[in-house]
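Hi! If you just cloned this repository, the fastest way to understand the data is to look at a raw example. We've pasted two of them here, unedited. The first protein comes first, obviously.
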Amino acid sequence: MRIIETRLSDSVDTEIEGAGGSREDGRTRRDIAPGRARVLVVDDSEIFQRVAASVISETQGLRLVGVAASGEEAIRVLPGLKPDLVLLDLHMPGLGGLETAPVIRRESPGTVIVLVSADPASVAVDLPSIGAQAFLSKVELSPERLDELWRTRVTRA
């Protein structure tokens, strides 16, 4: 289990990945920061995990609740983390984004799934057929782009 630290206001809140976000006082992270979308990053690259965590921490209205290194791990932690948004790598060993997205869609129908890849040719994936809402090239990942993707999805819902 990895410990994830995310900034909430001026304090740092620590959560154990997969533990559901409960604190000693019984409040959940969702109770502490209402209105902030919970984000799960699923990518086998530790470098991209760190980059994504940094970008998410700089994006208003989003907060990182977990990092998974595979599709299998994402499926396992999904119920406890209850993410609103999943950044899901298309190409990973084992279950990649193409196989994982339909499972996330079935298990958590309200979760927004954004496929990410370093391969620009991946844009050709038929997103609706696998349950994903958007594709994002890893080189385009920025607070502005994440904010745009999230706001566009929220206004359509």
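Ok, and the second one:
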Amino acid sequence: MAITINGSGITSSEIADSAITSTKIADGTITNADINSSAAIAQSKTASLVSGDLPTGSVVQFVSKNLSHTWSTTSTTYVTTDLTIDFTPKFANSTILVQFFGSTHFEASNHGKGQIRKDGATISNYAEDDLLAYLNTTDKRGQLEGGFWAGDAGSTLPATYAYYVKSNTGDPFYFYRNSGISVTEIRG
């Protein structure tokens, strides 16, 4: 039976509650503009979004590690600290942000140096005198250190990001507990 509507049409007060269901709405007809900005859509409704749907600049993944123990070395060549994370980027064109922090102590002057490395190769700015772990003083020192590196993921292959250090003199170089490292993938 055909229905003819005259005048201003049907108003919402004339439609029975629950009379219109999703099966009565044509696919592709609701746009972003149709959704109220205060709709408070539950995260469970968007859980099927995948990282590939995220816009440029979005955080794709974040991995961190905090030490609950003290780590030390007397090595005069670079060695990896316990500030190490295995990480697999989801996108080759992402930016990887590596950050480290920690409380250090040196037993002698001209203490030590540090580098951020990927799979053992230096990725921080300099091959030698790098980052804040380099101190040159006549006093034994302890202080909070920190640094970061940001660069292209380059591939989706697994990689190990780590902070390497060495003692210039062979005297102890310590990283105290509550030191940490984090790796963040940012969508390119």
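That's it. A detail worth noticing about the second one: The mean pLDDT is 81.
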